[in-house]
Design a protein that fits this description.
alpha+beta; eight-stranded mixed β-sheet; binds heme C
């Protein structure tokens, strides 16, 4: 059933890609991202958004307003190699070095040298404050000292595109994630506003619909790169320290992976939005569905006042 549905939903992508054959390069091809289908858990605060009138063509047209030459590019590796870090034997990047990486990846994207995946994202589109298609271009870069990500994003009605970046400093133990918004040549580091969704650093790609992705194999490959990332810590900038979030989510069916020494860091009430969406669309836990009793326990925890 599930498989049949997946094939059906993914068919338009194959058609879109047409003769333009792309491969994921060396290594095995990761499985395509599961389509987002609500399991009706009752965890969402608002009804599942109906985007059925929104077409693949509109998606392609609006996505391309960023500059058609910058997206839907041919690729061999989903992660673009950055030149080696200029300073040798680095133990901890400086904020200036982090900023330089962010500006460098923005420049590469603007020059049409990145390999972005374009989608309408599930988590930002579905609930929160937006409830409108949120157009994303996500590109990944790396060298021996850093994993760098760029997100170029807007809604259909926004005039310009917003630029956001994550730099994962691999020279510290554990690695440290820096989050920032880029406006022109100005990089502004941010804390809680990003932490509420990115509790453990870069987030796996979750398209809201299977035909709202530019290149499904690339999405899968970038998502796999993100899923395989080392367990890192969130860097809160000086003026934006972590608030007191209370106690972590201690339900065993989540905390066996979401713990200080788990696959991902502990989850707190501040993460309620991505928790509701990822569980309701069947992405968390990764390999099974929660029982009705477990859903009830999770709902009770989410509904408690912090
Ligand atoms: C409402 C939840 C939410 C918030 C808040 C949020 N993000 Fe994201 N972000 C996402 C999701 C979901 C993705 C993956 C999007 C997709 O499916 O294409 C993402 C992707 C990204 C990416 C691309 C790499 C990756 O993680 O996939 C960057 C860079 C990024 N976000 C930066 C930021 C920064 C910087 C902030 C704070 C200013 C921020 N985000 C706040 C949900 C959020
Ligand atoms: C088997 C291990 C495992 C279990 C169990 C699990 N998760 Fe995750 N979770 C992960 C991994 C790995 C990721 C990152 C990769 C991804 O997003 O697919 C993740 C990502 C997330 C994220 C995105 C933010 C982040 O930290 O990266 C949320 C929110 C989340 N999980 C919630 C939950 C909730 C709620 C439960 C319990 C209902 C749960 N997870 C159970 C492994 C797990």
């Amino acid at each position: 059933m599930q498989v049949g549905l997946a094939v059906l939903l993914l068919a338009p992508i194959a058609a879109l890609r047409g003769a333009d054959s792309r491969s994921s390069g060396d290594g095995e091809t990761p499985a395509l991202i599961k389509p987002a289908i609500s399991i009706g858990s009752g965890l969402l605060l608002q009804p599942v958004l109906d985007l059925s009138r929104f077409t693949t063509e509109e998606f392609a047209t609006i996505s391309a307003t960023v500059g058609p030459e910058k997206i839907r590019r041919k690729w061999t590796s989903p992660v673009l190699a950055l030149p080696p870090h200029p300073r040798s034997a680095v133990h901890g990047l400086t904020e200036t070095e982090v900023e330089a990486y962010m500006l460098q990846v923005r420049r590469l994207f603007d020059e049409g040298a990145a390999v972005p995946i374009s989608d309408v994202g599930l988590i930002s589109t579905q609930e929160d404050v937006i409830r409108r298609p949120m157009f994303n271009h996500v590109a990944a870069f790396s060298n021996a000292v850093a994993r760098v990500y760029l997100l170029v994003q807007k809604t259909a009605s926004d005039k310009g595109w917003g630029y956001f970046s994550i730099v994962q400093d691999l020279t510290t133990e554990p690695p440290l994630d820096y989050f920032a918004q880029i406006s022109g040549a100005k990089v502004t580091f941010e804390g809680t506003s990003c932490y509420k969704c990115h509790s453990s650093g870069p987030l796996a790609i979750h398209p809201v619909r299977a035909d709202l992705v530019s290149d499904a194999p690339l999405a899968a490959a970038i998502s796999k790169h993100i899923a395989d990332q080392p367990l890192s810590r969130f860097h809160f900038p000086a003026g934006d320290p972590p608030p007191d979030y209370g106690k972590p989510l201690a339900l065993r069916f989540c905390s066996k992976c979401h713990d200080t020494d788990g696959d991902r860091l502990p989850l707190f009430k501040v993460h309620s939005h991505p928790i509701r969406v990822l569980v309701d669309f069947g992405y968390m836990p990764p390999r099974r569905r929660l029982t009705p009793e477990e859903v009830a326990e999770l709902k009770a925890w989410l509904d408690q006042k912090p």
